[in-house]
Amino acid sequence: MIRRGVFRCALVCSVSLASLAGAQSSLLPNEDGYDLWLRYHRVADAARLREYRAAIQYVFVDGRSPTLHAARDELTRGLSGLLGRAVPSETHAVDATIVAGTPESSRAIAALGLAKPLASLGNDGFLIRSTNIGRRHAIVIAANSDVGVLYGAFRLLREIQTDGTLRDLSIADAPKVELRLLDHWDNLDRSVERGYAGQSLWEWNQLPDSIDPRYRDYARANSSIGINGAVLTNVNADARVLTAAYIAKVAALANVFRPYGVRVYLTARFSAPIELGGLKTADPLDAGVRAWWKAKADEIYRAIPDFGGFLVKANSEGQPGPQDYHRSHADGANMLADAVAPHHGIVMWRAFVYSNAVPTDRIKQAYDEFKPLDGQFRDNVLVQVKNGPLDFQPREPFSPLFGAMPKTPLMMEFQITKEYLGEDTHLVYLGALESEVLRADTWANGRGSTVARVIDGELDHYTHTGMAGVSNVGTDRNWTGSHFNQANWYAFGRLAWNPAQSAAAIADDWIRMTWSNDPSVVAPVEHMMLMSREAVVDYMTPLGLAHIMGTNHHYGPMPWYARGRPDWTPVYFHRADSIGIGFDRAPAGSNAVAQYFPPLRDEFANVDSTPEKYLLWFHHVPWTYRMRSGRTLWDELVHHYYAGVDSVRLMQGLWESVRGRVDSARFADVEGFLNIQEHEAAWWRDAAVLYFQTFSRMPLPAGLAPPAHSLAFYESLRCPADPRKPRCPAIY
Predict the structure, then answer these.
(1) For 636-665, b where at least 16 C-beta lie within 10 A, e where not — what string?
(2) Exactly one of 331, 419, 423, 434 is catalytic; which is it?
(3) In whole numbers, what is the pLDDT of the chain averaged over residues?
(4) Closest by alpha carbon to 610, among 597, 593, 633?
(5) 603 is a catalytic site residue
(6) Cβ atoms within 10 A of the Cβ of 111, count?
(7) What is the pLDDT of residues 327-376, one digit of tens each?
(8) SS3 of the chain: helix, strand, coil, percent, to 5
């Protein structure tokens, strides 16, 4: 009746044993989360510590660039902390046991003859090898570029942080994706759209003269996971960021980020020539408009020579764009691409579009607008596509655009900030969601045409490749609003570097670097993380339901809401009635299934062959439909809702099992958030089940406790009280 019940019973027994370790928590120094996964605490395993101390005496980073200095500083700082003693940097390679550099910056590296293996690793890749330099054993970090050396330095530190061995090191690594960016939805007043971790990091009023030390730590954190770009401003753009005063502020940030390989990008408001330039039009084919953008790009690049380019949201949710002038998305993107092309800049043009008119099926619009434009974009344009065809839901099928535009680079957009997944409150590990999308098979070129192979360019040989994540970073001391939200920033960076990586392996590394290498911590915390995404799907939107959250704030259940624009309301998406529930996207309905390649098209078109996790996404299904479990659809839906709450309670028990094995301050923070999540999962369950029961008119399955309140109670709630820090106090 309750899934995973046997494991939970075993866990309860283990919790009592874990409580005996409570006294140990006073021996662990409290932490506030500021150091993220770059804590560099002394290695706890005595044997490993002896190995590391024997292998590492001095560090020599050969070269004088700011980036190589950053690599040197990170190695000396990290190794000194991990080894529990000072690890100085040398000014020559004679006595160094770690030697880092490029063949150009370092004679010692050049003498090792690494040109051939380095040739295949590109600009950002690196080698880490155990070797001999003269008569001395050493660990070498070699790369083709200074930033590659920095990435290699972080990788070596990760090996030590996670209790890896330094014997016979032979690591060759390079990113599979060129552009690995954080998109900040930050406004110039320091508010953050869909931000749940405090204000924007960027203190515009104090820039460019005052530089917060936190900017450097932000760049370090990004560099440590391979993120190489930051879009500083909201996609709902403010043209003022393109004025001279703000360009100087952006240049100051770029100066801080540059040694860490992080380039800055800005969002471009399409109507800026009117708002800033005094022009009467923003028509992308108008000569005066094109000249204005070219002059603006030249101005930006004079201040920021390595400026990355523009991200654009156009003709979506009221934003201006080329369609205002009866031009295409390609016309708009190409105008900006021509402006930045002489400076090797790029344009990222978002495919998140839907018309102001209410459609028959909103999820079809991105494909319908962009698929016909394949091959019409400039070489330095990437079309940035959300992972699903709707809007960052707990679960969606992948966007059918992936695989459908072989002549146009498509850039993945994930949302790290959990707008629809409990925001800062609920523990949800997004590595599982992202990996599920990346491994999905599009069938564009037959079996094995995964989304990952589309976005890394392997499938269609794109000129540029990219992955963007909508940032969850803010001014909260722990950066992300909750300690476990840090894992989503970390996992995004790792998957952007290599989309084929395992979500479980990434979680394992993050736990070891952030919490502990103790197996009695790693195992239960990893279990929590890997089950958390499925838990939130179960108690929010099981079996393919979507967008039944509170309208506008997107927090908490509101499946009954029907006021305002229909395709912004939950009832538009779930379509529950006395017959059944779900959105009919089969050929007899909206025929959204036609946007997928066969055999997916045929699989999704048939209610009996559609994977049950997408059932109500593609079909309006009778309440009495018999599921593969043997239950009716109604009973299966209810069981998922109840199982989601049980999963959160299991997560609480898993966390309790590490009491005393992690510091008490962070333990208490996580415990408090899990308590909120348990209450709110029950809120979701009870509100959704009671509401859908008004249509099914069927009883709850036997053995399940009835909801705590009436449907009228849940409908009367007005939550959250504070959208910046969501909670629903009325349910406690």
Answers:
(1) bbbbbbbbbbbbbbbbbbbbbbbbbbbbbe
(2) 419
(3) 94
(4) 593
(5) no
(6) 12
(7) 999 999 999 999 999 999 999 999 999 877 877 899 999 999 999 999 99
(8) 45, 10, 45
Q: Which two tokens stand for residue 39?
A: 């804590």
Average pLDDT over residues 240-246: 98
Give the pLDDT of residue 534: 98
Residue 419 catalytic?
yes
- Assigned token pair, 263: 């380039």
Tokens of 163: 């209790």
Contact 126, 148 (CB under 8 A): yes
Give the pLDDT band of residue 728 (cuts 50, 70, 90). confident
pLDDT value at position 25?
Answer: 52
Q: Which of 193, 212, 299, 391 is catalytic?
A: 391
DSSP state of 632: B
The CATH number of 537-565+630-731 is 3.90.1330.10
Q: How far apart are CA 297 and CA 301, in angstroms?
A: 6
Q: Residues 289, 292, 296, 302: what is their CA dihedral angle, to the nearest 10 degrees?
A: 140
Q: How far apart are CA 233 and CA 213, in angstroms?
A: 20
- Class level of CATH domain 179-514: alpha beta
- Indicate whether 2 pLDDT > 60: no
46-173 CATH: 3.30.379.10
Give yes or no on whether 46-173 and 537-565+630-731 have one common fold: no
**Confidence band, pLDDT 50/70/90 cuts, at residue 27:** confident
Is the pLDDT score of 5 beyond 90? no
Q: How far is CA 441 from CA 337, 524, 542, in A?
A: 31, 31, 22
Amino acid letter at 469?
G
Q: Where are the domains of the chain?
A: 46-173, 179-514, 537-565+630-731
Q: Which of 45, 298, 306, 317 is catalytic?
A: 317
Is 317 designated active site?
Answer: yes
Picking from 127, 117, 133, the residue whose alpha carbon sits closest to that of residue 152 is 127
Please state the length of the chain.
Answer: 732
pLDDT at 239 exceeding the cut of 60: yes
- Two structure tokens written together for 732: 């406690």
